[in-house]
Amino acid sequence: MSRAWNIGNTTVRNPKRIEMGFKLIRQNGLEASLEGKENEKKLAEMLVQAGVVDSKGSQSDWLGRKWRSVMVKLGLLTDKSYKIEGKSVRIEKMGDKLGIPAVPYSITPMGMRLINAQSAAEVSDIFLHQLFVHELPNSIEKKIELGSSRIKPFIFLLQVLLHLKGDDAGLNQQEIAVFLQKIANHDKEYVESVVADVLNYRSERNKLSSKREKLIYDKQLLESVATEMHVKRHTPRDYADTTVRYFSMTGLFEMRGSRFKIKDDSVAFVERLVQNEPRFIGSEDPIQYLKDFYCGSDLPTDSESMLKGDLAALIQKSEELKISTPDIKTKSLTVAEMKAEKYKLEEDILKSRENSFAFLQQSSEQVKDIVEGLTLVSNKNRAYIQSVTDMPAHLEWMVWRGFLAIDHIANPISDTRGFPVDVDLQPRYPAPGGRPDMSFEFDDYSLVVEVTLTTSTRQYVAECEPVRRHVANAVGPKQALGLFIAPTLDNNFLHGVRDYYKADILVKLNILPITLSDFVRLLEVHKSHPITPRAIKELILRANDDQSKNGLEWRLHIQKAFNKWLLEQATEKVEI
């Protein structure tokens, strides 16, 4: 019987949030305390309260179990037992052999690396290591029988992609679902046969004249594969989706149209990485496999000579970007020290790229793109929303781009966002609790920006206190103002958001809540009549210059003030 492989699971569909959830486990002292229904429930409730997940009515212990499972499968947590030579062996009997705490669901050394990672490049490197080492079957994923066909899923996909070049480069999700998600004997011949199957599929599909015929052809193939794998019809596509999402965490891939492909500047690296693969050790030496998976091991690209070459290239790139670089003496550095220097250089280059990205947002093409994207979110465009991996993080990123377009920012660009970005400057996850979504410094004031998708009573419960606190904490030498953006505004939120007590002293905050559609209107005007930070300050102060007795009255005042202000901006003479 053929079986399907799957990375992570389809419940934890967004791997960018794993880092966020994993750090919460450490911060809340749940490590090594995740066994049993009550602890699974605690984990789920913690993830929901922190905004990492939306439970959507799921049983909380089930949700916690799914999150724990994905961390175990990625080698970030130990399991409670392992399948060794056909027998179930408890972790307590294996701790000494593995050199790690013999406690179920404790954080592994690779898990600690993820918690302590200081850069997007290091996070990508951690996922790269875990996916590179991962092979099936293994002693953790017990449903896949030892002795069945062997495959290294990540290596397999890389090797298939390396064979698809030119106009044939890349794979779409249908192709990954139909041709790659099956567990089979992974060798050179199998890789070549899958490449041939993909090319034949494309050729046969291109012979079909209508869209309907192609949809039927694709559906029949999926049904055939699902039957062969003994899964539901939609499951191969779900698995292909998680494959793309999890493998993207390595930073090696990009989407080109509908196709998932290796980035052009990563091809040489990938060729070195897979040159002598696949090499399997899980069946022959499960203890060594777990050591490599849990404690880390050198990749083929971690040799001293290759790292020296990487550092030289990064130093050259830094110099081209006019980034000040330290004098790195590679001769005296260990491999670990060279990797640390590599992460620092990559982070400095990322910040430089971020500065260029910020400047680019001021172009008319980028402003148009921002407006179009936010309009689709505001209008709840189903196709657009479904295409986005993490809508809360994406919305923060889009609003941030809107402020980059307005410009005149005095603080470093990387300090303006509370959410982290990956090596492609895409959001990894939303701003964590305890810090604003965005903070901008302008000449004469500080601006805290908070963005949410919550509405009605949930908006009041989830947003009112942190919005007030973040603006109040921003008070310093400059005047602190706040801007709150949401699809709709709740009257209870409006009623309470401006009053904040510091001890027994009432602080009246200058906060402007506006709808997402009004923020889009602001940016529409900005396309032809540039809006300045000074003008935004004036708007916020006008909105707070009122005698409103309740949230509803203030809502009416805000809308009236905003409409008048926006008309003034739209009719103001543009200086040439």
| Count of discrete alpha- or pi-helical segments spanning 4 or more residues | 23
Helix content: 40-55%
CATH topology of the domain at 361-571: Restriction Endonuclease
Q: Reading side by side through the largest sheet, how are the strands ordered?
A: 5-6-7-10
- The Cα radius of gyration reads 26 Å
Low-confidence stretches: none
Q: Roughly what is the average pLDDT, rounded to an integer?
A: 93
Indicate the overall shape. Answer: globular
Structural class: alpha/beta
Distance separating the two termini? 72 Å
Describe this structure in words.
With 576 residues, this protein is an alpha/beta fold. It has 23 helices and 10 strands. The strands form 4 sheets. The protein has a 4-stranded mixed sheet with strand order 5-6-7-10, with helices on both faces. The protein has a two-stranded antiparallel ribbon with strand order 1-2. A hairpin with a 3-residue loop joins strand 5 (438-441) and strand 6 (445-451). Helix 8 packs across helix 11 (235-247). The mean pLDDT is 93.
